[in-house]
Design brief:
The chain has 233 residues and is of the alpha/beta class. It has one domain: 2-Layer Sandwich (archaeoglobus fulgidus dsm 4304 fold), CATH 3.30.2170. Strands 1-4-3-2-5-6-9-8-7 form a 9-stranded mixed sheet, with helices on both faces. The longest helix is centred in the C-terminal third of the chain and has 22 residues. The chain is globular and about 50 Å long. The structure holds 2 DNA strands.
Length: 233
DNA sequence: GCGACAG
DNA sequence: ATCTTGTCGC
């Protein structure tokens, strides 16, 4: 497997990225309930970076939603395609993540992304972006509240408080473990917010972060370490 | 104008 | 995201 280059025509600056984001946003579908939690497949996606060498490694891990056992894993290594700009995260991760997804044999089912979906300055975060490009249902589970505000959710697993963008509920601060900081869930594409939260809880029976993200996180770090070792030889 | 800001 | 040791607790 070689290193994925930056795609031809990829946005070169923020202005171009904003234009692409605006176009793709029109294809976002938010009136579907989405797949039921605990059924079919769920795929965790994550990336790791080496800014010095301009490398990004992506992982896609397909789990059986009922047992949380690994069905299939895939990785891809690419060149960093965009700087980190809050609100434009997708342009940094998408090419390599898509390459990892494309090499899967199994049906990915629901895409579970590290970051936000519709809870985003322009309603089109990473999870929505990947959902639209693949046509698949997707959700975003972030570890930080980004620019949104929320009240403290109750202390029990399953307790939540709305994530607010002005007065609108764009996501939820959801507690997956008693007494532990919540995660921040939003719908990405072709799923409801309630469905996104149900999936998140089903995927996090024991740890704060969903099993999908934990698996994908470990795998992309491994892939990055291997790519770095290979590039030196 | 200044600071904050998913990963 | 990433740079980083030990340490408190289940």
């Amino acid at each position: 497997m070689g290193i994925i280059g930056v795609p031809a025509g990829w946005p070169a600056d923020e202005e171009a990225a904003l234009a692409v984001q605006r176009e793709l946003r029109e294809r976002l579908v938010l009136d579907e309930e989405g797949p039921a939690a605990g059924e079919g497949h769920v795929t965790g996606l994550d990336v790791a970076y080496d800014d010095g060498r301009d490398l990004v490694a992506a992982a896609a891990v397909v789990l059986d939603a009922a047992t949380l056992e690994v069905v299939e894993e895939a990785t891809a290594v690419g060149r960093v395609s965009f700087p980190y700009v809050p609100g434009l995260l997708a342009f940094r991760e998408v090419p390599t993540v898509l390459a990892a997804l494309a090499s899967l044999t199994a049906d990915p089912g629901l895409l579970v992304c590290d970051g936000y979906g519709v809870a985003h300055p322009r309603g089109f975060g990473l999870a929505s972006h990947l959902g639209v490009l693949t046509g698949r249902p997707s959700i975003g589970v972030a570890k930080n509240p980004f620019t949104f505000s929320h009240d403290e959710p109750g202390p029990e697993r399953g307790d939540f408080a709305p994530l607010l963008d002005g007065g609108e509920e764009v996501g939820r601060a959801l507690r997956t473990r008693r007494g532990v900081k919540p995660v921040f869930v939003s719908a990405g594409h072709r799923i409801s917010l309630a469905g996104a939260c149900a999936h998140t809880l089903a995927l996090a029976p024991r740890y704060r972060v969903p099993e999908t993200t934990r698996r994908a996180d470990a795998l992309c770090r491994r892939a990055l370490a291997e790519a770095l070792a290979a590039e030196r030889s």
